[in-house]
Amino acid sequence: MRKLIIAAFAFISLSFNTPTQPKPKEWVSLFDGKTTKGWHCYGKPTASAAWKVQDGSLFFDADSKKTNPKEGGDLVSDASFTNFHLKLEWKISKNGNSGIIFWVQDDTSKYKQVWFTGPEMQVLDNDGHPDGKIKKHRAGNLYDLVEGKEGAVNKVGEWNQVDIISYNGKLDFYLNGVNTVSTTYGDADWRALIAGSKFKDKADFGKVFSGHIALQDHGDNVWYRNIMIKKL
What we know:
Layout: H1 2-17, E1 28-29, E2 39-41, E3 51-54, E4 57-60, H2 62-67, E5 75-81, E6 84-92, E7 97-104, E8 120-124, E9 160-167, E10 170-175, E11 178-184, H3 188-195, E12 211-215, E13 222-231
Antiparallel strand pairs: 1-13, 2-5, 3-4, 4-13, 5-12, 6-9, 6-13, 7-8, 7-12, 9-10, 10-11
């Protein structure tokens, strides 16, 4: 009987310690809706005063920057990511311009601006901003690299849903559920895109496929909310 009891306990112990399948990757919030915790302006230890929390969104206050230019700057996530699925919503002011930049190398000693290293999904009032007349510069485009599918962006002042998926050499942009951009990266085609762009003279642009997320200060009012990311 004693041997049977010992054997039973051994079986139960083995059952509890048997390795299980890893849990699916979970979504992580990059913005708590109340503070700028987890973010800092490029080259600064914290977020500047122009980046404010307004009605559950991260709001770039252009007037605050005009009053004091030092209060501006691109907002950079403290954490960095390699393969990821980023989800967020944005709303732009009339005639406004901003962007969602990724693979940012957070090193001001080497790079003056975040866009020296990181590609961008364009955020824009297509009808009001001059960039709206330039192919590859419209909302939902891979800025200056790939022209996006048209018709996905909502009217200025309305919220837009974004998905950016970077995974093992494949990059996809979705704007309001529409796959506006689908391309590869790190290959000959990617290098050709860069060579034909305004970034051709930036030695490290789009070459490191891991880095920080940045929300661009382009001098215009812009709002971001529901910022979530999942490592892939």
